[in-house]
Amino acid sequence: MAYPRSFLGLCLASFMLVAAPLIAALAYSAWHSERLAEQSRHAVFNASQAARASRTLVNRIGSIERLATLNNSAGLGADLGKVHASFRQVAQELLQLPLEEDQLAALKRTMAQEQSLYDLLAEPGRVERRRVAAMAAELADNAADVLAISTRVADREVMRLRADAETVQRQLVLLVLFSTAVAMALALALTRHIARPIAELDLAIRQLGGADFEQRIAVRGPDDLKTLGERLDWLRRRLIELEDEKNRFLRHLSHELKTPLTALREGAELLNDGVGGPLSEAQRRVVLIMKDNSVKLQRLIEELLDYQRALHAAAALQVKPISLRSLIQEAMRPHELAAQAKGLEIAVDAASATVEADPEKLRSVVDNLIGNAVKFTPAGGRVAVTASSQGDQALIDVIDSGPGVPAEERESIFDSFFRGRAKASSRVEGSGLGLAIAREFVEAHGGKISVLAEERGAHFRVALPRRLAA
C-alpha cells in the first residue's frame, strides 16, 4: 500500500477508509427507512381509499334498496340512473385497489347483483314487487362483504408493512455487524500501516541511544517521516565522525602524555636513588610525591585507554563454556594478599555450574567487583563471593561489609567517571571506569549487573544467561 505525501494525509485517508463501511451502512439504512415510509404512505392511502369507497358503495346499495321499494314513484328512472352510475364509479375505484381473490369475487358478485336489479327496475311496465324485494334484500346482504373489504385491505397492508419492517431490521442488524467488522479490520490493518514508520523512527532513536551506529537508518512512510528518517541517518553519520574524532584525540593525547610522564617518573626515581647526589629529608618527600603522582597519572591514562578498548572489545566475544567455580577462584587469587594485609574474612561459595561466556571479559568483571570489595571494606571486615544457577540464568554475587552504596547512586555508579560519596570520603581513589567497563562486558553477554539493597555493606549481582544467544 502506497503512502500519501504527508502523515496528516495518511491519517485522513485512514479515517475515510475506516468510516466508508459505516457511512455505507448509514446510507443503506436511510434508503430502507425512506422505502418503508413510502410503503406506509401507500398502505395508508390504499386503506383510506378502500374505507371511503366501501362506505360509499354501502350507501349506494342502501339508496338502490330504497329506490327499489318505490318503483311506482314518479322520477324513479332518473334517480335510479344516477345512483347506478355512482355505484359503478365507486365499484371501479375499488377494483383498482390491490384486492385478494375472495374480496374481488365478492365485489364482482355485488356489482352483478346491482346490475341485475337495475336492469329489472329499468324494464318498462310493471315489475313484480316480491322479486324486486328479494333481489334488494340479497344486495343488502352483500353490503357487509363490501364493507369488510376496507378492513381486510388495511389489515393486509399492516401485515405486509410489519413483514417488510422485520426483514429490513434483520438486514440492518447484519449490515451493522458486517460493516463494524469491516471497519475494525480496516482500523487494525491501517493502525499497523500507520504505526510502521513510527516504530521505525522509535527503533532508529533507540539504535542511536544504544550507540549502534553501524546500521543505516531508513524510514518507510510519508515524505515528511522519510525526511525525518534521513535527518536521523545524517545524525548517525555525524556521531560516527565524532566517535572517531574522540578516539583519535584520546590516542594522540595518551601518546603525547606518556613521553613526558615517563621522563618525569624516571627522573623522580633517579633523584630518589641518589644519582644526582644526596637528598635531604624534605627533598626526598617532594621526590616521593612527584613519583607517586606521576605513577597515578600514568595509571589513569592507561585506565582511560583500557575503557575505550573495552567499549570496542564488548562487541567481539570469544565465547566458550567455563566453570563458575574456576573463574571465581582465578579472579580471587590476585586479591588474597591485599585481603590478608587488611585482615579480611573471605568466603567463597561457588556452585559447579557452567556458563557460556568470554573467559577474559567475565574474569575482568569478577576481578573488578572483588577488587572493589577488598578495597572499600575496612580492616577486619568480611567479603562473600557466591555463584549459583537459577533456571536458565547464572548469578554471581559479591557482598562486602563496607560503607555500601547509597540508594540514589545505585544506577549512576555504573556510569563512566562517576565517583560517589563513599569514594570521595575515603582514602581510596579510583578513575570511576571499572564498573562502567564491567557493565559493558556484562551487557555484551546479554546479562545485567546491579546493586541490591542491603542494610549494611554493598551487594553487587551479575545475572548472565547460561546459554548465550547466537
Write the layout of secondary structure elements.
Layout: H1 7-69, H2 76-95, H3 101-122, H4 129-141, H5 143-209, H6 223-272, H7 281-313, E1 320-323, H8 324-332, H9 336-341, E2 345-350, E3 354-357, H10 359-376, E4 382-390, E5 393-400, H11 421-425, H12 434-444, E6 448-452, E7 459-465
Parallel strand pairs: 2-4
Antiparallel strand pairs: 1-3, 4-5, 5-7, 6-7
Helix pairs in contact: 1-2, 1-4, 1-5, 2-3, 3-4, 3-5, 5-6, 6-7, 7-12, 8-10, 10-12
Summed up:
This protein is of the alpha+beta class and 470 residues long. The chain has helices at residues 7-69, 76-95, 101-122, 129-141, 143-209, 223-272, 281-313, 324-332, 336-341, 359-376, 421-425, 434-444; strands at 320-323, 345-350, 354-357, 382-390, 393-400, 448-452, 459-465. It has a 5-stranded mixed sheet with strand order 2-4-5-7-6.
Ends distance = 34 Å
Helix run count: 12
Please state the oligomeric state of the protein chains shown: single chain
Structural class determined from secondary elements: alpha+beta
The dominant shape is: rod-shaped
- Percent helix: 55-70%
**Strand order within the widest beta sheet:** 2-4-5-7-6
Indicate the radius of gyration in whole angstroms: 53 Å
Order of helices and strands: HHHHHHHEHHEEHEEHHEE
Percent strand equals 5-15%
